Amino acid sequence: MKYINIVILMMFLALGAPSCTMLEPEADNHNTLDRVYDDPSFAEGLLIKAYTYIPTNDYSFDEVATDDAVTNDRLSSYLRIATGEWSPRLNPQSEWDNCNKGILYLNQFLTVVDQVPWKWTNPQVKELYIRRFKGESYALRALFKYFLLRSHGGIGPNGDLLGTPIYDSFLESQEDFATPRPTFAESVASIYADITEAQKYLPLDFGNIGTLPEGFEASIDIADYNEVFGDFAQQRMSGRYTLAIKARTALLAASPAFNPAGNTQLWQQAADFTAVLLNDLGGLDRLDPNGHLFYLKQQVDQADITTGDKKDLQEILWRRPIYNNSSRESTNFPPTLYGNGRVNPTQNLVDAFPAANGFPITDPMSEYDPAKPYANRDPRLSHYIVYNGSKLKNTVIDTGTDGGPNSLEAIPTSTRTGYYLKKLLREDVNVNPSSPSSQKHFNTHIRFTELFLNYAEAANEAWGPDGQGAHNFSARQVIAEIRKRAGIEQPDQYLANTASQEGMRSLIRNERRLELCFEGFRFWDLRRWKENLSEPARGVRINADGYTYFTVENRVYDNAYMHYGPIPEREIIKFGLQQNQGWQ
């Protein structure tokens, strides 16, 4: 009874005494936005958070939704969209959420960056930090806009080519998000505008210097410059990376899906933008002789900016930090090497690799032997794909019908096509549970090989196989160097005999397919080229009677409209945005 009286008294005091504040929330230690004005590291977190949304932070392996691969993961969302379930409600290829989140973080950061005490003890350093952070923000915003446009730009209900909503300020109300879709050209112009703004603030490259780069006032102290723009800032968004984003955007805008009139000036612009970047770094001399093997130990070790030999860093323009891991290998090694065999290259892709002399295997000049399909082939085939009888970790992999767990669909983690992935994997990783080991890896944002292929594609469309525009090399010269590096026998007679623009176009697209396989390009390349999306994924069955080729998985895409990705359904419902044609 005494206890009850005490409780009643406390309730009376809490509810009846006017001066009591027991029910009012007290200040706690939760962070609020106000902290950014006092804590530079907290403020920079807004910018760093945006970096975490970059789509190329990891490899998607979305090739399993194309003609290049399938997966043995039956629950894969990529398998589902490839076999008929792609919709505005199921879209693992959507960049809408992540890219718009990144943009909103950047926009909020730009509203506070001038007011943060980045270094109150040194006003010059403070201003340099503001300059760098603004440049990074505008450049990252351009990057996110590019991925949004690639993934969601398309033909609207009225037949107009539409882009994606442009958010150039921090939005706080639902009405602010209900921004109509601009034209595709307006979205491209918005990307270019952000890049132009970023270039006002950023040097071409970060790193300690002895002489101030162009665009920086002579009064700036070198030590202060190096504190802000020096080695510590490596792999943050630089001026050179923005040039690559600009070139990528121009290539997208020139491509058939977004350039239905075939405007050659757009192709010329894409070639010009790319050539500016490549020529500044040495033109074709920049092509790394080992660039197609960038994921192997020697190249990964060289890429370490603290211990590597910087003069050999010719392949990787921009990458994520190096990390120790074994997940790629455990995911993709064959089952006898304790892997899950997830990504299975198709016969389609295997057939795309030419013979060693450079001729397609369908050409009699290739001397292709159907009884020995992997003999006398482009060396990249053995670098990138594990086929029957090839080695991985010094172990012969048998995918024939009597090959045990590595055989075609022998167990749930076996291949469905007769092939396993080799590219991007390190053979010095051990995923045996009894003695596991990891090794260094990195994920690439932009490789120079991609940029050379971008240039070749644009230059061929603008000026033909041998035209150079105002530059020092042609599409043919680029492809010649890439094929020579790959190990194609010289002289390359097939390339020499490819005289027409159409023939060179096919060759360039095939070289792009091979060089960039499993790096997240094929899905969108097919779409921007308006190529057939429904080529069935094929495999091989090997037994005593030889090689039998069969359809592993049909690709259920509608070529009438699926060259463009959908706008998420909820955005259509919430904000009344126009959907791309065909999507329901």
TrEMBL record:
Residues 324-583 form the RagB/SusD domain. The keyword Cytoplasm does not apply. Keywords: Cell outer membrane, Membrane, Signal. InterPro entries: SusD-like_N (IPR033985), SusD_RagB_dom (IPR012944), TPR-like_helical_dom_sf (IPR011990). Residues 61-206 form the SusD-like N-terminal domain. Residues 1-19 form the signal peptide. It is found in: Cell outer membrane. One of its GO terms (cellular component) is cell outer membrane. The keyword Signal applies. Belongs to the SusD family. This is Putative outer membrane starch-binding protein.
